[in-house]
Amino acid sequence: MVTCPDVRKEVIRFHYDLSTFFYRLLWGEHIHHGLWVGDESAESAQLNLTNTMASLVDLQSDDRVLDVGCGMGGSSMHLARTIGCDVTGLTLSPFQARWAKVTATLRRLRSKTHFFCQDAETADFAPESFDVLWSIECTEHLFDKAAFFERAARWLKPGGRVVICAWLAGNVENNVTATQQVYDVCEGFFCPSLGTFDDYRGWMTAAGLTVAATHDWTSRVDRTWEICIRRVERTGVRRLAKILDRDTVMFLDRFQTLLDAYRSGAMQYGCFVAEKPE
Ligand SMILES: C[S@@+](CC[C@H](N)C(=O)[O-])C[C@H]1O[C@@H](n2cnc3c(N)ncnc32)[C@H](O)[C@@H]1O
Question: CATH second-level architecture of 2-69+121-275?
Answer without folding.
Answer: 3-Layer(aba) Sandwich (3.40)
